[in-house]
Amino acid sequence: MNHQLKIPIRRPFVLSGGGARGYAHIGVLKAFEEQHIFPAAIAATSAGSIAAAFICDGYTSDEVRAIFQQTKMGLSMQWKNMKSGFLSLKTVEKVLRQTLRHTTFESLPIPLYITATDYNTGRQAIFSSGEVIPAVLAASTIPMLFQPVVIAGIPYIDGGISGNLPIEPLSGKYEDIVGVHVNPPTPYDPSGSMLAAMDRTMHMAIQEPVLKNKQLCSLFIEPAALGQFGMFDFKRFDAIYNVGLEYAREVLQVEKGEMARAGNQLVK
Question: Motif GXGXXG residues (predicted)?
Fold first, then answer.
């Protein structure tokens, strides 16, 4: 029997923040793996930076999925664990320290760029050297819910505030960028909860830079069905994962068809 050897394709990815909706990133990356497409580099923030840290550490999407399911990593970010007016990232930090095999950016097999927001200036900060875990925690620190993470004397908060689709580290260095945004716009629901209203308000406030950076992506993935999930729906891992997986599969099938048609036209 002749087995056709598939040559891996490498593409750069940008992964947005989005709380529990960040689980969808793992499903999206799984769909790309199925097509033998793997990250050449990842730029990410907030929830996207957690998934990206594992992928850039050399884990497959299936392995990352298992880690999230077994450790229940997101559950430490629920309201019931609030202490002193803040939520906790301690479980996230513990799992990262126990699981990551490479803990510095320089040692990662795949280049990783993590963005957070300088709480003094409000500007985007890009981490690509030094320790990975403090950068991930800084990028995931939602203001008013979490205490800022201090790195080298500077307080940092969620990178989504200064850019929730952080393509900046990849611009000029990589081509054919895949952008994955897990905060689709949804219709306003006046009967929604206060938490839902806060979630909606925050993402409306940071939407403009996302729309700008979307134009710089060769392929943009934003599953509309993620709108049914809230930022703190950590117990709905499988449903969120599957939305990302199925939507990315559909997008890739369309892209594959378009490439085939373009190739046929060139032959003619």
Answer: 17-22
